[in-house]
From TrEMBL:
Domain LRRCT: 295-347
Highest classification ranks of the organism: Eukaryota, Metazoa, Ecdysozoa, Arthropoda, Chelicerata
Keyword Transferase included in the entry's annotation: no
Signal found in the keyword field: yes
Signal sequence segment: 1-19
Pfam assignment, any one: LRR_8
UniProt keyword annotations, A-Z: Leucine-rich repeat, Repeat, Signal
InterPro entries (alphabetical): Cys-rich_flank_reg_C, Leu-rich_rpt, Leu-rich_rpt_typical-subtyp, LRR_dom_sf, Wnt_signaling_inhibitor
Protein name (record): Vasorin-like
One cellular component (GO) term of this entry: membrane
Length: 388
């Protein structure tokens, strides 16, 4: 009986204390809701449209802009967003005034089917204080089927500290000059694709871009690509795509000082022969991807080294193996890698090209006994051995 009484008294005294403790415990305030921004009405931004992507991010697309279009008003309405993509298409613009871009935070600018003759706003932005947000936010410029861009003053981009890539497709760009190479050193990727009127690339055009990791110049009428276009050394260059051009030959120093190169595409050019010494700096790399498909190869003694390289390190050629002989007539249509070393013949009186000799089946050896060694080739580059 005494135990029951004590139990009841204990329960009675514990309940109030628990209530007191419960009342004194701090209550967490409810989380404040983050307001979701809303795009302006389509009628307010015409001929542009605002596409809501996330809470504070939007894409803005403008089509058929006319000289009378009030872009400053339109961009002012969307300035509260971080703009992932600003697309301007099907428009004729003399210039884009700097003041309309001042309040914008843009990651990617895309110009499509635009006749755009000046980029004066870039130089204007660089002189404005306080510094516009665009200088720190612009990551990529993509140009598609545009005219007049070869006349831009590309040095205007120098103040854009976040710019990483420039992609130009199906546009008019007859000559790649040093002006283009004055892009900021933050740029790691450059692509020129299907530029049907590109005739030449200036000496040292990209030599200042030491952080370049990817370069694509493809689908152009270029028949020459010199090593001096790129930085020396091109220490970070991993991808070099020169496919679908009209290259007829490669300089002997073409691949010098490219220690990081992993992908080299020369497919669909007009290459009839390749010097062994040109590829000596990269031939032993196990991770290399080399594409030489669909070139009109002359399978004579000067190209026997390539056949032997395939037999020793076939993995670097990947799966695109359409390396066929165009000459001599007896080998026309034959796949280069399927031939035997004895098939690569030259007339007895034929003088071998520099650094190209006959090789036995166990040793691929590039030497220079009869012809003086060029200064740019080290002894290691002039003597490359691949053993079983």
């Amino acid at each position: 009986m005494l135990y029951v009484l004590l139990f009841v008294l204990g329960a009675a005294t514990a309940a109030p204390s628990e209530a007191v403790l419960g009342e004194s415990a701090p209550q967490e305030p409810p989380e404040a809701e983050v307001p979701i921004l809303q795009c302006p009405l389509a009628s307010e931004t015409y001929p542009c449209s605002c596409l809501h992507v996330r809470a504070d991010t939007a894409d803005v697309r403008c089509y058929e802009i006319q000289p009378s279009t009030n872009l400053q008003k339109i961009f002012g309405l969307v300035s509260k967003f971080q703009i992932s993509y600003l697309t301007i298409a099907d428009s004729i613009l003399d210039h884009l005034p700097a003041e309309i871009l001042l309040p914008l935070d843009i990651s990617v600018i895309k110009l499509s089917r635009v006749n755009y003759t000046r980029l004066s706003f870039l130089n204007d932005l660089a002189r404005i204080y306080p510094v516009p947000r665009l200088l720190y936010s612009l990551y990529s410029i993509e140009v598609d089927r545009a005219r007049g861009i070869d006349k831009w003053d590309w040095s205007g981009f120098q103040g854009f500290s976040a710019l990483d890539r420039v992609i130009i497709r199906e546009s008019s760009f007859p000559r790649l000059t040093k002006s283009f190479g004055s892009l900021p050193n933050t740029v790691t990727e450059i692509s020129f694709e299907d530029i049907r009127d590109m005739e030449s690339i200036a000496f040292g055009a990209l030599a200042r871009l030491h952080n370049l990791t990817t370069l694509r110049i493809k689908g152009t009428p270029l028949d020459v690509f010199e090593r001096n276009v790129l930085p020396t050394p091109a220490a970070k260059l991993r991808v070099l795509d020169l496919s679908k051009n009209r290259l007829k030959s490669l300089p002997l120093d073409f691949l010098n000082e490219m220690p990081a190169l992993q992908v080299l595409s020369l497919k669909e050019n007009q290459l009839a022969s390749l010097a062994a010494a040109t590829f000596a700096p990269i031939s032993l790399r196990s991770r290399l991807q080399l594409n030489l498909a669909r070139n009109p190869f002359n399978c004579d003694c000067n190209l026997s080294w390539l056949n032997l390289l395939f037999s020793k390190n076939s993995a670097i050629f990947g799966t695109d193996l359409e390396m066929q002989c165009s000459e001599p007539a007896a080998l026309r249509g034959e796949f280069l890698h399927a031939l035997e070393p004895k098939d690569f013949q030259c007339p007895r009186s034929y003088n071998l090209l520099p650094f190209q000799r006959a090789y036995d089946s166990n040793l691929l050896e590039f030497e220079a006994e009869r012809i003086p060694q060029p200064a740019f080739l080290s002894q290691a580059e002039a003597s490359l051995k691949i053993r079983k």
